[in-house]
Amino acid sequence: MQNPLVLVPGRPWSTIVLQATVIGLSVWLLALQSSPLWATVLLSLSLALLAVRLIALIAIPTTGPSSLTTGNPDPRLRRWEVLMAAAAGAAALLASASSGATNGIGTFPAAVAAAILLSEIAAPIGAALAVCGAAILLHCLGAGFAGASISQLVNTLFGLGIGIAAGLGWRQRAATARDRARAAERELALRDEARKRSLARDLHDVLAHSLGSLVVQLDAVALQIEAGRIEAAGERVAAARELAVEGLREARAAVHALREGNDEAPVPWPILRDRIGSIASAVGGDLEAVLPEGVELRAKTVAAASAMAIERAAQEGLANARKHGGGTTRLLLEPGTDTVRLRVENALAQGGHVTEIPGGGFGLRGLRERVLSLGPPAAMEAGEHAFDDESGLRLRRFVLSVTVPFLGAAA
């Protein structure tokens, strides 16, 4: 929809009415008295510029928002705003020069034109102030040339000063509106970037877990077939199919959360415990899972986003253990009074090494972003730890720890 040019944020029609009133009043007062020809001509030109500018404001539609409300206006609109500002500046100069010789009539259009010029963001503040300074000088020269009294000069200068002060106030409002619009644009851009990061993170988590687990299951199928254990191989195939179905479900859930927002209900502790257990069962291998249960824990809940962070931590930790570990992997779900922590510990394979961001870093980096987005007291630690066993042998383990808050009792 096309709208007329907006010069003052939130007050487009008030400025139009003000200009129309000043033009009409000045024409009427000028007709009632006799003024020098040169002053009448200057004031008439000033009123003509304001009238043309007023007609343009009403009649010329625009296809984009004004530069007062956005930092990236339509280029055609920007040119019109510059022309409008130039017209207001010229009107201020002409009316100021005629004011003293027209018994102060020119003060009204001069003050309004100066106010409009200063309110225009399209006009640099330095240039606008320079024009206003020139208007004051012309005002004084015109009054002296016409023989105006000192009191008359002071009164008309006071009126011109009111217009300049009003213009500065309008300009501040315009600048505030523009800054807010730019801040809103930046916020939208940041949100869009965050959504892209979230999509990339979720797709990585889903694919890394699902495809990684599928590879493990299919390798097991190949071994079972080579050993002639067809029934066991069939069970592995069924498990692989379940993993594929679960991966598709998680991918759809991730896309749904991005499109519709994450408004899932809190996750009770028993459900969270079962989900972590399912992840551990799907991985299999030399894994020790400690998943506590108890009557006092059944009433505990965690937010859906926190539960997802715990699940992704379990998937990422077990996937890294499968790629880089050697020996038994331990998965511990440790509920506290106000928080729950998940730890995945695995010994590093002989000669192996895991940095804080293994495999390119997308897994742990995305997990860290997910956890930190929950806010305190959510926290994540990931790194390599070295220690000596009872025989004095130097061992190395990689530990991933994620902590999220409990919400409280389930409804």
Walk me through the structure.
The protein is α+β, with helices and mostly antiparallel strands. The chain has ten helices and ten strands. It has helices at residues 12-32, 37-59, 75-99, 107-119, 125-146, 150-226, 230-260, 269-283, 304-324, 362-372; strands spanning 3-4, 61-62, 267-268, 287-290, 300-302, 325-335, 339-348, 379-388, 394-405, 408-409. The chain has a five-stranded mixed beta sheet, covered by helices on one side. A three-stranded antiparallel beta sheet has the order 3-5-10. It has a two-stranded antiparallel sheet with strand order 1-2. Strand 6 and strand 7 (339-348) form a beta hairpin. The longest helix is centred in the middle third of the chain and has 77 residues, at 150-226. The chain is rod-shaped, with a radius of gyration of 37 Å.
Condensed summary:
The chain has helices spanning 12-32, 37-59, 75-99, 107-119, 125-146, 150-226, 230-260, 269-283, 304-324, 362-372; strands at 3-4, 61-62, 267-268, 287-290, 300-302, 325-335, 339-348, 379-388, 394-405, 408-409. With 411 residues, it is of the alpha+beta class.
